[in-house]
Amino acid sequence: MALSPVPAPGRPPGPPIGPPLGRPSDSGVAPSRGARPAELPPVHGALICVALPALAICSEHGQLTGEGLEGVYAAGRRLLSRCVLRVAGREPVALQGRMATADRAVFLGVLRVPGDMGPDPGITVERTRSADGTERITLRSAVARPLRLPVEIALGTDLANLGAVASGRSGPGLTASVHGTGLRWTGDGSSVAVTADPPPTDSLAAAGVLRWEAEVAPGGTFSVQLRVREDSPTRSSGSPGAGAGRPGGHLLADAQAEGDDARPGELLRASVEDLRALLQRDPAHPADVHLAAGVPWRCGPVTAEALWAARMVLPLGTRLAATTLRALGRTQLSGAGPGSGRIPGPLRDAGPHLPPRCTGIEATLAFPVVLAEARRWGLPTADLEELLPVAERCLGWLRRAAAGDGLVPDPGPAGPWRAETQAHAHRAALLGADLLDACARPGGDALRDSARTLRERFRREFWLDDRTGGRPAVARLPDGRCLSHLGGWAAHLLDTGLLGGGIPAQGLLDRTESEQVARLLGTPALDSGWGLRGLGTKEPGHNPFGHRAGAVRVHETAVAVAGLAAAGHEKEAASLLRGLIDASEAFAHRLPEMYAGEQRTAGGRPVPHPAACRPAAIVAAGAVHALLALAGIRPDAPGRSVSTHPLRSAPLGAIRFSGLVVAGEPFAVRVGRLGLGMVEQAAEGLQLGV
After folding, report:
1. Residues 508 and 440 in one domain
2. What range defines the domain where residue 146 resides?
3. pLDDT digits over 617-635, tens only?
4. C-beta atoms surrounding 468 within 10 Å
5. What are the φ and ψ backbone dihedral angles of 564, each rounded to 5 degrees?
6. What would the mean pLDDT of 309-327 be, rounded to a whole number?
7. Whole-angstrom Cα distance, residue 436 to residue 374?
8. Inter-residue contact 495 to 369 (CB < 8 Å)
9. Do residues 92 and 137 lie in contact, with contact meaning Cβ atoms separated by under 8 Å?
10. Does residue 7 surpass a pLDDT of 70?
11. What one-character-per-residue DSSP string does 17-42 give?
């Protein structure tokens, strides 16, 4: 899990928004083993309001005490660390904290009225806090007599970067000064102010306290609204989205799901909200928007995860894919060297058995795939023509990288050769060839030859026969040995992508091998009941909390659901999908990027991972991807056709998806209880098929 993104060559780094822990390089060299990263503060119990570049991290009780990561942040700097409410000298009894939307949390507390002898609280306290630092506090009285209550709010900040906060180096709090209707703090060339409405009756700057005398009639209310704003001209030009405002929701359609089971609709709604909250602009090119990888640790430059996420939400429109591809394309390496055409990216840990992998190679192989599939969903011709040269250079790098023995090494020329990378490379070659042919560009035949060679080498050198039917190797090492550790990575072998006419591309495996992989993915060693484990329970080094060693990674589970469904393995696909939906219910429909791969038991709940990003782009997009596998939509906008291939078992009963986008127009599809699909809305002139 990379926690400190590496800026691409030629791009200025954004403001620090993650702790500087073991910054990986893009040189193919693993981080120093001598450096010990600091322990991350747990965030599994936090309520995180997100509207990047703003976010607020809160505990369930609603008070901001300055402990851990609590606070209101903008572009990675903590603007407010303390916001402690007291009424009549006491803190409200916290009853509930919940997310209302992706960018807003609501907290409910109560107070007994001073002088009352009974146990019943007479005052309800509701706090609504938004990612942008706006907070509304409302006191409601159920007491039959007028009340006069002293209300005070203690505020404070350290103006620390999130990385410093996470590593315990935030420094002391600053001293406030009275400023208008609130307080102001200045330090390190920056300043932040909190204003209050109505104005306080008293302000104690030295203590950072604002006070009111609230008069509340029987059944009446008293409200205070706080606004936090940063006044830092030197920082505004460098923050993500500076001067451009929040990206609009038009980038992602307002998809909806309804049916016999209400939970898919809740999961889809929350996922689209989270995706919109994670949108951020390229600082140098404000028109280009991409998804942050995850909050709170990975909100840096555009990454491979942003590209995979854009691919999985193509049913919500192609504009996000176009802007993400454009932003990544600007980082592509040029020149005549061996790296020409590759997209740079940092190394990322690959688990206990392999060295770190290169996310740049992953992004390079994903680029032509996303462009080819975006064209199938209806990418405008102008975007296609602009991005096609970048895809051609990616495919040129792929041909050169595989020219030696047909396989693509990762991260360096000396290997290792990972099965997951070969799956990405094979898919890129086939979909890239199809794309070049469709655009009347040369090179398609050479790519198909590369794919054929890669497929032959893979089946000869990566498939390990045994008495149970065999299994794919996770990697081949430079010394010729193959590692046989089975994990969720195998799901990528079933993700083939779509060619012209919505026809699935040929995969690396033959039918018998695909059936064996499907069977293995459905065994209790990998299917935890909550999703797919990153490493099987019987493998050495298994750790239910290891992000590549046994934890459930939602992205891999979603890839497995879609791949299994497309290949006709409905039993295994339905089991993983039901587990994912059950887990989402336990996480209030906002899935973290991973959670413990503990085996599901009767009455049990999925166990959170303390350091997992939540929300995360590839997870929210993965939820969309997995749910839409129920309908099996296969578009071919250039060929003016679309077909559906739903799961015949209808594992969630009848379901209807609306608000999708195919060929630039609204699209809706219904799957009945008998597993029959019916297109209810589509662009005029599209030929429909089932």
Report:
1. yes
2. 54-236
3. 999 999 999 999 999 999 9
4. 10
5. -65, -40
6. 97
7. 14
8. no
9. no
10. no
11. -S---S---SSS-PPPTT--PPPPPP
pLDDT in tens, 542-591: 999 998 999 999 999 999 999 999 999 999 999 999 999 999 999 999 99
Record the tokens describing residue 504, joined without a space: 């699935």
- Amino acid 20 reads P
Q: Which of 292, 317, 288, 255 is nearest to 616 (CA)?
A: 292
CB 321 within 8 A of CB 643: no
Cα 240 to the center of its chain, rounded Å: 17
Residues 6 or more apart in contact with residue 421 via CB below 8 angstroms? 357, 361, 362, 365, 408, 409, 410
Q: Which of 549, 576, 543 is nearest to 487 (CA)?
A: 549
In the listed set 205, 236, 267, which residue is the last one of a domain according to the structure?
A: 236
What is the C-alpha to C-alpha distance for residues 388 and 580, in angstroms, rounded to an integer? 36
**Residue 48 is assigned to a structural domain of this protein:** no
Question: What does the angle CA 222 – CA 227 – CA 230 come to, to the nearest 5 degrees?
Answer: 165
Over residues 14-30, the mean pLDDT reads 32
Same domain? For 373 and 279 the reply is yes
Instruction: Please count the other Cβ atoms lying within 10 Å of the Cβ belonging to residue 44.
Output: 14
Residue type, 663: A
User: Could you give the CA distance from residue 289 to residue 280 in angstroms, rounded to a whole number?
Assistant: 6
Asked which of 189, 211, 236 is the last residue of a domain, the reply is: 236
Q: What is the pLDDT of residues 166-198, one digit of tens each?
A: 888 887 889 999 988 999 999 878 899 999 999
Strand order in the sheet with 655-662: 256-259, 655-662, 665-671, 677-681
Backbone angles phi, psi at 507, to 5 degrees: -95, 180
Token reading at 243: 């001067």
Q: Report angle CA 257, 261, 266 to the nearest 5 degrees.
A: 50
| Claim to verify: residue 232 and residue 253 sit in the same structural domain | no
Question: Where are the strands (E) in 366-517, listed by range?
Answer: 417-418, 463-464, 471-472, 475-476, 482-483
Q: Is the pLDDT of residue 17 over 70?
A: no
The Cα 661–Cα 645 span in angstroms is: 17
Question: 665: helix, coil or strand?
Answer: strand
